[in-house]
């Protein structure tokens, strides 16, 4: 018995499934994506379903193609929020797809055909989309009962040293670095994430404080560097800090800003997804 597959139906149904599960992965990983990016990721997933019709590939090659197509869908939807966040997103996207496949196969009359590790579920599109809605609603119910992950990173612009630095800001409820002298709000910046955008003189001064080994030399007074005490589980340390003109965030046609703040720098890139950390006061000013 032959199965008739309508290509437009195959692509469209997989588009809807991918859109729902990319959103679900973002909810579980604490990340957000825009509508156009979501459509791009879901569109790539819909087209990748055509692998089902391709000549059968060796298992290793098929696995590599499947992993690459899944990673591309996540990357199109969420970009590169850092290695750790990206693999969280990709992992949850895979888990949700497996949950749907397992749930459908457990239904009476469910069946499947495979080709190049693409699964074709032998049920009507309407029933399949109802199953997708069931998985998504179950996810929302779990998050409603047990709480969502922390809000994802949001794009913002930090102005200091005469330059504007695009950053990914993350609100951490446990962040409490303060300026003991002026009481100004403080944000924490991952230095390597913004290093190349800083003026050369400032970059050299911060390189000496954060990247050079041993005891760093006193900074040039013209840089206006000061040091803030910071306590972590590894012990107390001093972080170099600079006055910042403002931190700005755009959202839904509104502009949020925090002015007259200090930017403290720590070593590290944005591999965890964020390049700027802020506390409760600044998060409130930015509408988070």
TrEMBL record:
GO terms for molecular function: aspartic-type endopeptidase activity. InterPro entries: SpoIIGA. GO terms for biological process: asexual sporulation; proteolysis. The chain crosses the membrane at residues 12-30, 37-54, 60-80, 92-111, 117-139. It holds the Pfam family Peptidase_U4. Keywords: Membrane, Transmembrane, Transmembrane helix. Coiled coil: none annotated. It comes from the Bacteria. This is Sporulation protein. It comes from Faecalibacterium gallinarum. The lineage of its organism: Bacteria, Bacillati, Bacillota, Clostridia, Eubacteriales.
């Amino acid at each position: 018995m032959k199965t008739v597959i309508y290509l437009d139906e195959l692509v469209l149904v997989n588009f809807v499934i991918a859109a729902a599960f990319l959103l679900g992965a973002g909810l579980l990983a604490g990340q957000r994506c825009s509508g156009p990016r979501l459509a791009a990721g879901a569109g790539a997933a819909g087209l990748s379903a055509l692998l089902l019709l391709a000549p059968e590939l060796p298992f290793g090659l098929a696995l590599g193609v499947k992993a690459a197509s899944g990673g591309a869908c996540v990357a199109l939807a969420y970009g590169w929020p850092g290695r750790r966040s990206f693999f969280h997103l990709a992992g949850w996207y895979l888990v949700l797809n497996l949950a749907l496949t397992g749930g459908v196969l457990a239904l009476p009359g469910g069946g499947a055909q495979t080709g190049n590790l693409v699964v074709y579920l032998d049920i009507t599109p309407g029933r399949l989309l109802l199953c997708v809605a069931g998985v998504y609603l179950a996810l929302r119910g779990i998050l409603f009962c047990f709480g969502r992950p922390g809000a994802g990173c949001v794009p913002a612009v930090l102005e200091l040293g005469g330059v504007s630095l695009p950053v990914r800001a993350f609100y951490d409820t446990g962040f409490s670095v303060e300026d003991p002298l002026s009481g100004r709000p403080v944000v924490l910046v991952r230095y390597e994430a913004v290093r190349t955008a800083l003026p050369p003189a400032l970059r050299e001064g911060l390189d000496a404080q954060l990247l050079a080994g041993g005891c760093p030399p006193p900074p040039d007074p013209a840089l206006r560097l000061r040091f803030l005490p910071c306590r972590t589980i590894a012990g107390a340390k001093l972080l170099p800090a600079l006055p910042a003109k403002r931190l700005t965030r755009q959202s839904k046609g509104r502009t949020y800003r925090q002015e007259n703040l200090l930017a403290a720098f720590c070593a590290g890139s944005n591999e965890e997804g964020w390049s700027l950390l802020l506390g409760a006061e600044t998060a409130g000013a930015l509408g988070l």
